[in-house]
């Protein structure tokens, strides 16, 4: 019981702290760091960490690691370029979204990734969903819609003294991020199921492509500014904390989920929404209105319902063709 409590605490803290910390550092007065460079650094750290884990697991030191990496073919490695491109886009869009949306609004809206992942799983992996899961997805969409209507009426609830923000830009960014998250996650799952390579090795491959694609995106979006002001312009201990959280947080969550279950993960996601909302009220002056509370409540309930075990025969989604 104590172990489950520890797992739950880890999931809640990581999930909520990443959103809140990004929002905080992106709304501080003064010079902003370049989000594209933060994405590159997170990919570098994540890839290097996974490479170290592979090295520690392989017998024979560097030679054993070389043999393990050598068994992965070039074609097999190139397959990771697609999800890596999508993940890089998603990570950059998260910064755009959180820079323009209140943390609580982003946290609620970002749960649409459950809906997109479910849809892509049905279409690409031929998975089936239970009736309860379909109902939960409908509640999820309804809850997010209620939140968006309420936030649109109050103007997005921008933090006092924050930099210029665009609610429309943030909303588009989080929706596209949810779509990319669902597609990349399902595509990556499909690759993992068709290969004997370890998850750590796959993350090394993702890290290599992610770093290269991140550098390309940095050059395209902010190349002139980075060249003029420096790669680490605007970095502070808080910014490094965000990067470390983004790099290692996902790996930590993956380890925790391996020893936990989907119900615990769904419960942790629900609690992180509550934690983000409460923290936003104190940190950013976020005002909690009844429509937002209703929409967030529907999303929290939907997330928990979706994570419950399937009961009864599955209800297959309508599909074209087969």
How far apart are the first and last residues' alpha carbons, in Å? 45 Å
Compute the number of helices: 13
Instruction: Write the element-wise H/E pattern from the N-terminal end onward.
Output: HHHHHHHHHHHHH
Show unreliable segments: 312-322
The biggest beta sheet reads: none
Q: Helical content, roughly?
A: over 70%
Query: Based on helices, strands and strand pairing, what is the structural class?
Result: mainly alpha
- Multimerization state: single chain
User: What integer is the average pLDDT?
Assistant: 81
The total strand number stands at 0
What would the keywords be for this entry?
single chain, 13 helices, 322 residues
Could you explain how this protein is built, in words?
The chain is mainly alpha-helical. Helices cover 78% and strands 0% of the residues. The protein is built from 13 helices and no strands. Helix 1 runs antiparallel to helix 11 (237-259) and helix 12 (262-283) runs antiparallel to helix 13. The longest helix is centred in the middle third of the chain and has 31 residues, at 199-229. The termini are far apart. 40% of the residues are buried. This is Solute carrier family 35 member A2.
